[in-house]
């Protein structure tokens, strides 16, 4: 038997209400026609059930209103002794009202699988973005924070130092005096400097012999004026009984004549006392302790 004949026989055997709706819908073969008939039948059943429920709820509401009116009349006419009995009856009647509300608990959301609401009113909304093989979910979002990319502010006392009557070394870096070719010079030990430095003024005044720097570099100051360091000098200096020689880069600086940085501290294996600001190291099996200048002496220099 041809499929067209089978479809015609199948349509003639359908319910009139189902056939009227199926004839308005497109289908390709007998299988599509069967699926359409099943869906149309389910729609008709849902509509009929909703009509029955609505008519039932209206009848319940009507009966409840009539009973409420009759109850109010009894309260007015009957004596107060029967009031307690009527309240018990009223409680029994109130049990009927949650019927409509219990219906909502049967509703199940297909998104969150919760009850009491439909998917369009789901309070738990989830956004999913698919990109290649990666999945991004808003419920699993993590916040990543990064360091600020703004200007770094620095505060440093420059060209001026307020005199202090205290001997505390709390706010002082290590200042001392040394001898270079029988001349008294100021000296600073600072672990924040990655190189040993000698001032241009000291080199010119004492006519020290300089040499070319093997790796010239650009020197950047706080005022953004730059100089290129191209020369070095070997400085022989002494602090009391301690005598030493340091290879220094020649830079234009005003803070001191000689600045001993990390290279000198690393070579001497120095130990710095943060409270007394003293520097201790050992040379040729002899222990040396260098004491700093007082704040007043630093101001005088």
UniProtKB/TrEMBL annotation:
Keywords: Metal-binding, Zinc, Zinc-finger
Every CCHC-type domain range: 108-123
Zinc is among the record's keywords: yes
InterPro entries (UniProt xref): Peptidase_aspartic_dom_sf, Znf_CCHC, Znf_CCHC_sf
PROSITE patterns listed in its UniProt record: ZF_CCHC
Superkingdom, natural source: Eukaryota
CDD domains, A to Z: retropepsin_like
GO function terms (MF aspect): nucleic acid binding; zinc ion binding
PANTHER family xrefs: RNA-DIRECTED DNA POLYMERASE, ZINC KNUCKLE (CCHC-TYPE) FAMILY PROTEIN
Protein name per Swiss-Prot or TrEMBL: CCHC-type domain-containing protein
């Amino acid at each position: 038997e041809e499929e067209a004949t089978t479809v015609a026989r199948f349509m003639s055997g359908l319910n009139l209400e189902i056939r009227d709706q199926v004839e308005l819908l497109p289908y390709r073969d007998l299988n599509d026609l069967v699926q359409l008939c099943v869906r149309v039948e389910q729609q008709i059943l849902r509509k009929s059930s909703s009509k029955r429920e609505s008519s039932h709820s209206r009848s319940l509401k009507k009966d409840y209103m009539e009973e409420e009116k009759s109850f109010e009349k009894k309260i007015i006419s009957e004596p107060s002794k029967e009031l307690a009995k009527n309240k018990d009856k009223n409680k029994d009647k109130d049990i009927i009202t949650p019927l409509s509300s219990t219906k909502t608990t049967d509703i199940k959301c297909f998104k969150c699988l919760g009850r009491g609401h439909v998917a369009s009113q789901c309070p738990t909304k989830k956004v999913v973005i698919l990109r290649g093989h990666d999945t991004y979910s808003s419920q699993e979002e993590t916040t990543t924070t990064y360091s600020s990319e703004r200007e770094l502010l620095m505060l440093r006392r420059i060209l001026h130092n307020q005199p202090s009557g205290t001997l505390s070394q709390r706010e002082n870096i290590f200042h001392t005096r040394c001898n270079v070719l029988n001349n008294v010079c100021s000296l600073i030990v600072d672990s924040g400097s990655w190189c040993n430095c000698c001032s241009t003024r000291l080199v010119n005044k004492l006519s020290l012999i300089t040499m070319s720097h093997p790796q010239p570099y650009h020197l950047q100051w706080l005022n953004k004026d730059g100089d290129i360091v191209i020369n070095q000098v070997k400085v022989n200096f002494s602090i009391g009984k301690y005598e030493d020689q340091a290879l220094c880069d020649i830079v234009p600086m005003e803070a001191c004549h000689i600045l001993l940085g990390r290279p000198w501290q690393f070579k001497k294996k120095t130990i710095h006392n943060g409270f007394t600001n003293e520097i201790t190291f050992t040379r040729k099996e002899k222990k040396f302790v260098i004491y700093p200048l007082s704040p007043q002496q630093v101001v005088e220099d």
